[in-house]
Amino acid sequence: MDFHRKPNIFVSHVNIKVQDLERSLKFYEKIIGFQVLERVNNIVKLTTDGKTSLLSIEQPENVIPKQGRTTGLYHFAILLPNRSDLADIINHFMKNNIPIGSSDHLVSEALYLSDPDGNGIEIYVDRDPSEWNWNEDQVEMTVDPLNFKDILQELKEDNWKGLPEDILMGHIHLHVADLLKAEEFYCEGLGFDVVSRFGHQAIFISTGKYHHHIGLNTWQGVGAPRPLENSVGLDSFSLVLPSEEAREKVVEQLQNIGASIEEKNGIILTEDPSGNKIQLLV
């Protein structure tokens, strides 16, 4: 999991908006396996190790259901440390009749589901990077059927105990309105590299030759509008940069391409051309 530490730029935390906080809290605790780290009014920070929050859920005032055909969250992705952990959660989902999608991406094996509000979730495990196939600067990824039978052979015990402590926020995948503008923002501005292209509809970007720290797509339509501020969906996500000097460089790069920069309570905020809000941390 060296792809989620210095000197790489990576997603560390995602903050999503929900319509019913108590309903969502029950889902994320009982079904996904998080624990509550902190609760302040209508915001709950979730953890697995009791120290670090990877996901926050909040219920905005006058919240409205998730809006279709808009930019924002496609899914956030929880990275498990071991294949046996994937077997464990598959077994847990089967026992609780949780509907899931799945895919073998060659670089990883993944499950897909949504929370009660339609916020997308991926739960995945990486294959060893030595097994990833690179064609110069492009990594081979595909959408093949997942071999559940083989994965479930890794099951160690038939006793669900929640997510393991050492999970990470592996990546985030976003709906955007314009792929070229998004690529300029994330690559020229933030410093990511494109490592895979899915036609003219999606790109996958990373640092340090990870298969992707961020996915970007126009599957909700080119020119899709931003959702309303009180809509269910993505509030913001956090990127960790390796140093203060690196953050200063990124801020300068973002300003050079006309991106917005705001400092609030010591945190530097920006947003991509589609309105996805980002906190720049060190």
**SSE run:** EHEEEEHEEEEEHEHEEEEHEEE
Low-confidence stretches: none
What composes the largest sheet? 8 strands, mixed
State the CATH architecture: Roll
Helical fraction equals 10-25%
Indicate the mean pLDDT.
97
Instruction: Please compute the radius of gyration using only Cα atoms.
Output: 18 Å
How far apart lie the N and C ends?
A: 18 Å
CATH C-level category: Alpha Beta
Number of domains: 1
Could you state the CATH homologous superfamily? 2,3-Dihydroxybiphenyl 1,2-Dioxygenase, domain 1
Strand order of the largest sheet: 2-3-4-1-15-18-17-16
What's the shape?
globular
Computed structural class: alpha+beta
Strand content: 35-45%
Structural write-up:
The mean pLDDT is 97. This protein has a single domain, classed as Roll (2,3-Dihydroxybiphenyl 1,2-Dioxygenase, domain 1). The chain is built from 5 helices and 18 strands. It is an alpha+beta fold. 39% of the residues are buried. The protein is 19% helix and 36% strand. Strand 13 (202-206) and strand 14 (214-217) form a beta hairpin. The strands form 3 sheets. It has an 8-stranded mixed β-sheet, covered by helices on one side. Strands 6-7-8-5-11-14-13-12 form an 8-stranded mixed β-sheet, covered by helices on one side.
